[in-house]
Write a structure and sequence with these properties.
The complex is a heterodimer of chains A (about 325) and B (about 675). By secondary structure, chain A is mostly helical. Chain A has 13 helices and no strands. Chain B is an alpha+beta fold and about 675 residues long. In chain B, β8 and β9 (about 270-275) form a beta hairpin. Chain B starts with 7 loop residues before the first helix and ends with a helix. The chains are: A mainly alpha (about 325), B alpha+beta (about 675).
């Protein structure tokens, strides 16, 4: 298994280089370094001299291949440097401050959504073919059909403005953060519930139609024992593996929820960087995102091998 | 051991109980975003659209930055909170108004030393001023502010890594500043740090008095008094700059009325009244009507009147508006989004707002929005009578009021010339003959310019005007749409050329555009800060985007910029206005105005177009706010109860399904047994 992990990590190198190159090229097509300089200089009409100074200070005055090679070296060494914006602070410092709100939000959504979706999937699978299944499926499709933004706006309007259960937006320090995380968590869970219940229901029904379930029924095992002992245990394998790959990404936060609920997390950090054309932050966050995704997939493979004795990593 | 699985009915019941418990637990939460009890205190709650880019007073140059910095760093002057027409400068950290003397300085010209006349401004500061406590000082205790700290702020302007935004304005005025700027740039190229000890001839300390300093100007610069009211010239502690460097952007060390207590990036800034704040008081005199408006109730009281200001970063205007309605923000802006809800008629609040005790204010900005021609363009530029008539015709066809009505909620003042109301040189009686909407006259002038009916006789096609822009927002697209419609009325075809901002800026700088739109908000209340937008030497990459160059205008501008506000200055401005009127490089659109609303518990609201420290005069009735917040934000339990009941009732048929399946299983067992 160790050799397998090493091999997978080596495969990651060209992926990371490719993603970084794409980010670099896209950014250069969308925003020229001069534009970056103009945006970040405080003068209303910066002089060519000021622009040149800024470019030199941030290393954007060198030929593109040299810049890319330098950026790549820094990224692989995880030396993200400073943000391109005024009064910039080290990017690692920002990440250190911002991963906690992100993780708090996304991990709560992850756990709550996982438990809720499994429960609902079990119920729907148990009541397959009845009104619960039909209405549940319809509800899931409805939930999947609505755009994310609608949930956010409707959630803020209904639970914040009309019912007045939660603050509309914001964040607090320490325990104060708790009340700010509930509404985005609720929205996050509702948003992903439809697709998850549908998916997990499929996993459950796949198992329900297996031969071993028919055998158990023939032996007179009760329906609840079949569902909780046999079906749930076997359906947990795909659920586990689809979930494990999400775990590393929990640190990177949620772009939309953080943006709309003014949560100072990493998702918001990336959105801000894109809006303010802060290339230093964008390339660091894209690199980190790619890295985390690759780690997620490796963890998925490992978890497969751990929970399913038929799978061997070689 | 054989584990028995949980009864399915039990599971279902558990799920329903959990959901119901969750539903019932919701109302236990509060929608108040602030710590319990804080709202009743002497705290001002306000919002920012974004995190300040920087809190470094030498660098900051945006509204979000300035509104915070001006509370952390005080300067020699500040603007009187209540007085207008004209704006009145008063000493803040300064002890007196500066004394001006004529002086002589020596310069080397053709190898000879030549004595030239200059101006010496002598400033005296208050004794006993202190910087806030900070670890950069010995023992962490803020030391006394001296004259040297003011001059240190000027030295920082020369730091090439800082990028001081107004360097062009001061470097050629202060004796020796240009040399110091070049010296610092040279050191920077050699990767050497700043040399803050090199003498600068124009920045002088009084060897006998640590509270007095002088600035020697090599040319008259009356605007220096306004510069001394800006945060760029606020005293800065050398210790802080050396310790924090570029981190000064996040670590302000000032001597203003407030100090930064908490800074949560992209989240909030909390400012608390500084124990070392300058000894300022609320003005005792105002304008007619101020007393009746209750603006003099706090006359003579020490300011700031609030102990704490909480700036919450709220990027979505809708969120800010909802928080205002809930009472969690003390003030809000009126925009197109909330206009229908706020106003029943122009200038009148809706019954809902009146019921909440909300107050409406109109604030007038010192700015100008204008269309401009490229005066070097072969078709629309130039100074011949035909070219002038062509631009005048287009100007006559632009109905500014339509923009104001359609895009700015009917707020705004039609602009006749560059200078806005309340700035010296503004003439309320002046009517620019080419800024009176008159389509018939426009058509006539267009014909006289050689384009009858808007047809270019050379090509036989309609005359085409290229509107160069970087418009991406809906508002800007509306401006273009309206302009196009107005030009259609005189037969001129308008084509939009949209560029990325950087390309647009390059084209402006290189004079490669034909026609565009721009806005300017002044840095200080002096006509020079508007008239310089048409000064010939300021054309690209300078702020003279129209590339206007009229020698007579330029000659008058040089005179006007160094004059005090006298009738002679006003007369020269009128002459400049007459020149611009006929040349018509601009189509002045409007001076903007906005509505703002505040809650009943907030007092002393009077907008100031220039000053940004007005928060120090705000007064808050905290207990009233807490009472109203509680009344307005009682949770509504009914939908939660309804949802719980619906879930329970909806689960009942499922129980019968379970029961039915159980019976079927029992029957099957009985059949097997039988």
């Amino acid at each position: 298994m160790l050799w397998y992990i090493v091999r997978r990590l080596l495969y990651a190198v060209p992926i990371l280089v490719g993603v970084s190159l794409l980010t670099f090229l896209i950014f250069y097509i969308a925003v020229s370094p001069q534009q970056l300089a103009r945006r970040n200089l405080s003068a209303k009409n910066p002089t060519p001299q000021q622009i040149h100074e800024w470019l030199a200070e941030h290393g954007y005055d060198r030929p593109m291949p040299v810049q890319f090679a330098h950026h790549l070296e820094e990224l692989f060494l995880l030396r993200f440097g400073k943000s391109d914006t005024q009064g910039a602070e080290p990017i690692w410092e920002s990440i250190r401050q911002r991963w906690k709100p992100s993780f708090m939000l996304t991990s709560m959504i992850f756990v709550a959504e996982l438990i809720t979706a499994i429960c609902f999937a079990l119920v729907v699978a148990y009541f397959r073919g009845t009104y619960v299944d039909y209405w549940g499926t319809l509800l899931c499709v409805l939930l999947m059909s609505i755009v994310y933004m609608v949930y956010i706006i409707a959630g803020q309007y209904l639970f914040g403005k009309i019912l007045k259960y939660f603050p509309l937006a914001g964040w607090g320090r320490g325990l104060e953060a708790w009340k700010f995380v509930l509404l985005p968590m609720l929205v996050g869970v509702i948003v992903s519930l439809g697709s998850s219940v549908r998916l997990y229901r499929t996993f459950m029904l796949d198992e329900i139609n297996q031969d071993y379930v028919r055998t158990a029924r023939a032996k007179g095992v009760s329906e609840r024992a079949i569902l909780f002992v046999h079906v749930l245990k076997n359906a947990a394998i795909p659920i586990l593996t689809t979930s494990v790959q999400l775990i590393p990404a929990l640190f990177l936060g949620n772009l939309l929820l953080e943006q709309f609920f003014d949560i100072p997390g990493l998702g918001n950090f990336l959105v801000d960087a894109i809006e303010s054309q802060d290339f230093a932050v964008v390339r660091a966050m894209v690199f980190l995102g790619t890295l985390v995704t690759i780690v997620g997939y490796i963890l998925t493979d490992i978890s497969y091998a751990l929970v399913d004795p038929r799978v061997r990593l070689e | 051991m054989n584990r028995r699985p949980l009864s399915f009915r039990m599971t279902l019941l558990l799920l329903a109980v959990l959901l119901a418990a969750g539903t019932f637990a919701l109302p236990g939460c509060s929608d108040n975003p602030y710590p319990p009890g804080e709202s009743a205190g002497n705290v001002l709650y306000t919002s920012l659209l974004d995190d300040p880019k920087t809190l470094d007073p030498t660098i900051a140059y945006s509204a979000e930055d300035d509104v915070v910095i001006c509370l952390l760093y005080s300067s020699y002057f500040h603007y009187n909170f209540l007085k207008r027409d004209p704006f009145v400068l008063e000493p803040d950290l300064g002890a007196t108004m500066p004394r001006q003397e004529t002086t002589f300085y020596a310069v080397q010209e053709k190898g000879r030393s030549v004595r030239k006349p200059g101006e010496k401004w002598i400033f005296s500061i208050n004794h006993g001023l202190h910087f806030q406590n900070d670890p950069c000082f010995p023992g962490g205790k803020g030391r006394e502010v001296t004259a040297a700290d003011f001059l240190f702020a000027f030295r920082r302007m020369a730091d090439p890594t800082a990028g001081f935004p107004l360097l062009d304005s001061v470097e050629d005025k202060i004796l020796g500043m240009q040399e110091y700027v070049d010296y610092c740039a040279q050191r920077h190229k050699q990767r050497l740090g700043m040399d803050y000890d090199k003498p600068i001839a124009g920045l002088q300390l009084d060897p006998k008095d640590p509270y007095t300093f002088s600035i020697v100007l090599q040319k008259p610069y009356p605007q220096l008094r306004y510069i001394m009211a800006m945060h760029f010239t606020a005293p800065q502690a050398r210790e802080a700059v050396l310790r924090y460097g570029s981190d000064l952007a996040r670590h302000p060390v000032g001597c203003g009325p407030f100090q930064l207590s908490e800074y949560h990036h992209k989240q909030s800034l909390v400012l608390t009244a500084s124990p070392y704040r300058p000894p300022l008081t609320y003005p005792t005199e105002g304008m007619p009507g101020d007393a009746a408006a209750g603006l003099l109730q706090d006359a003579g009281k020490p300011v700031p009147l609030v102990n704490k200001i909480v700036f919450t970063v709220i990027r979505e205007p809708v969120t800010a508006w909802n928080l205002f309605l809930q009472g969690y923000l003390d003030a809000a802006a009126v925009s197109q989004t909330n206009y229908q809800q706020v106003m029943s008629h122009p200038g009148e609040l809706s019954p809902e707002m009146k019921r909440k005790g909300i107050k409406l204010y109109r604030s007038v900005a010192a700015d100008l929005f204008y269309f401009f021609f490229n005066m070097e363009d072969p078709t629309f530029g130039g100074y011949t009578p035909q070219k002038r008539k062509l631009r005048q015709a287009i100007s006559l066809a632009v109905d500014s009021q339509a923009y104001i009505d359609l895009l700015y909620l009917g707020l705004g003042k039609q602009a006749q010339f560059a200078i806005p109301p309340s700035i010296f040189g503004y003439d309320p009686t002046y009517r620019n003959p080419y800024r009176q909407y008159n389509v018939a006259r426009a058509r006539q002038l267009l014909a006289e310019a050689g384009y009858p009916g808007g047809i270019d006789p050379k090509t036989g096609n309609r005359l085409t005007l290229y509107f160069d822009n970087y418009f991406t927002t809906a508002n800007f697209r509306q401006i273009f749409g309206l302009f196009k419609k107005q030009m259609d009325a005189i037969g001129v075809r308008v084509v939009s050329r949209t560029y990325r901002y950087n390309v647009y800026q390059d084209k402006i700088n290189n004079g490669e555009i034909q026609f565009s739109y721009y806005g300017w908000s002044c840095d200080y209340p002096d006509p020079e800060n508007f008239l310089f937008l048409l000064y010939g030497p300021n054309k690209g990459p300078g702020p003279n985007y129209a590339r206007y160059a009229n020698p007579e205008y330029d000659r008058l501008f040089v005179q006007v910029r160094s004059m005090e506000d006298t009738p002679a200055r006003a007369a020269l401005i009128r002459r400049m206005r007459a020149i611009v009127q006929e040349d018509c490089p601009w189509i002045c659109e409007q001076h903007s105005q906005v509505y703002a609303i505040t809650h009943a518990w907030l007092f002393n609201i009077k907008s100031h177009p220039i000053a940004l420290d007005t928060a120090i005069y705000r007064r808050v009735d905290g207990p009233q706010r807490a009472r109203l917040q509680a009344a307005w934000n009682r949770p509504n339990y009914a939908p939660a109860v309804g949802l719980a009941l619906f879930l329970i009732v909806g689960s009942l048929p499922a129980l019968s399904v379970i029961h039915h399946r159980r019976n079927r299983r029992v029957r099957r067992k009985e059949e097997v047994a039988g």
